[in-house]
Amino acid sequence: MKKLFSILFIISSFMTANAQKGNMVVISTDLGTIKVKLYDETPQHRDNFIKLAKEGFYNDLLFHRVNKDFMIQGGDPQSKGAPAGKQLGAGDVGYTIPAEFVYPKYYHKKGALAAARTSDQVNPEKRSSGCQFYIVKGKVYNDAELDRMEKQMTVKAQQKRFNEIAKERDAEVKKLVSANDRNGLNALQNEIIAQIEKEFKGKEFKMPEQMRKDYKTVGGTPFLDDEYTVFGEVVEGLDVVDAISKVATSVGDRPVKDLKMKVTVE
């Protein structure tokens, strides 16, 4: 019986180790190293980041955008060997990754690893850059500020629902527009608003307790939540993130002194 238990324990340990293998990456810089855990719940972002890291894609690229109360960003292939003063941030790998929001489980607390992306105007699906990423620095928020953000999240959800219903009734909308029936359009709008108010009554967005606690203590950038894919978090080296966030910068938040990175997979 003891022998069987030992065998099962070894198998279990092996499976656990294999499940975790490759989910840790180390970002090395002149200011220290940052160890990051990648989330299994965002598999496309995880696998893409690991693939690029193993290929050496990130080696010698720069943290090209740094803001002490916001984040540190890198991964632009055009930053490798870029001359001083060159505006960076437009480089890519020729593909994007579908958004993988796992919110509110994962959010923009300090140390969160997230994917950069282009604006909603040209990217309504909020697809991520295939290579550029950022690590959140952010700031600490108080209860009043977080209360306002909760209301904004509710309004955002209501607007999204409004657009969904309007799309479902697109034929009706087009018919009213074609007939220049403003009264009909106003009536339809009021009908949809009434439906949304009924659906959301008593269901206003509230931050989970741990999220609110994190934003009040370690800080972060809550205004980015549910807008950009968070696919990992710093498990060692937050002090290095702090150090990087404080370097002197010039135009475009580019560090005056180049800050190169090397990314390896553990």
What structural class do the secondary elements suggest?
Answer: alpha+beta
Radius of gyration: 23 Å
Q: Helicity, in percent? A: 25-40%
Using the coordinates shown, work out and report the CATH topology of the largest domain. Cyclophilin
Detail the poorly predicted runs: 7-20
Compressed to H and E, one letter per element, the order equals HEEHEEEEEEHHHHEHE
Topology, please?
Elements: H1 2-20, E1 24-29, E2 32-38, H2 43-54, E3 63-66, E4 71-74, E5 96-97, E6 112-115, E7 128-129, E8 133-136, H3 143-168, H4 170-178, H5 182-200, H6 209-217, E9 230-236, H7 238-245, E10 262-265
Antiparallel strand pairs: 1-2, 1-10, 2-9, 3-4, 4-8, 5-7, 6-8, 6-9
Describe the structure in brief.
The chain is of the alpha+beta class and 266 residues long. It is built from seven helices and ten strands.
Features:
266 residues, alpha+beta, Cyclophilin, eight-stranded antiparallel sheet, 7 helices, 10 strands, 38% helix, 17% strand
Provide an overview of this structure:
The protein has 266 residues and is α+β, with helices and mostly antiparallel strands. The chain has two domains: 160 residues, Beta Barrel (Cyclophilin); 58 residues, no CATH class. It is 38% helix and 17% strand. The chain is built from seven helices and ten strands. Strands 3-4-8-6-9-2-1-10 form an eight-stranded antiparallel beta sheet. A two-stranded antiparallel ribbon has the order 5-7. A hairpin with a 4-residue loop joins strand 3 and strand 4. Helix 3 crosses helix 5. The longest helix is centred in the middle third of the chain and has 26 residues. The radius of gyration is 23 Å and the shape is elongated. The two termini are 35 Å apart.
